[in-house]
Amino acid sequence: MPGWEDVRELALRFPGTEETTSYGTPAIRARKALLARLRDDDGTLVLRVDYEERLALVHEQPDVFSVTRHYEDYPFVLVRLGAVDRDELAELLEEAWRSVAPKRLVTGYDAGAATS
Predict the structure, then answer these.
(1) φ and ψ at 26, to 5 degrees?
(2) DSSP of 69-112, one letter per residue?
């Protein structure tokens, strides 16, 4: 069961990411864009995803992913950290990072990953 420390570890491996706060809770940003933040309840993560991906996640795993009215018009999904698979969380964080990171950072990261 992943927690905030797992989110930090998984997200901060990407270039240009930083830990910060959002609405008084821990958050991860890349280029000032919010990738993820912990909600006040300490068990739900707000995670950047595109709308199509969000639809699929909520439809396929409603026990893990959801959307409140507040987030309907924003590219975010709510993730129950106690129910999400760590590998899936890692994949979603990488997709979130790729969606906002400069191309040069993505290219550099991919080149480094290819030589590792």
Answers:
(1) -60, 145
(2) GGGTTTTEEEEETTTS-HHHHHHHHHHHHHHHS-HHHHHHHHHH
Q: For 4-108, which CATH class?
A: alpha beta
Report, in this order, helix, strand and coil percent for the chain, each rounded to 5: 40, 25, 30
pTM: 0.92
Query: How many Cα atoms within 13 Å fall on the side-chain side of residue 56?
Result: 6
Q: Measured between alpha carbons, how far is 89 from 107 in angstroms, rounded to an integer?
A: 22
The residues spanned by each domain of the chain are 4-108
Residue 20 has pLDDT above 90, yes or no: yes
Show the tokens assigned to 18.
């930083």
Average pLDDT over residues 13-37: 95
d(C-alpha 85, C-alpha 72), whole Å: 24
Dihedral angle over CA of 114, 104, 90, 66, nearest 10: -150
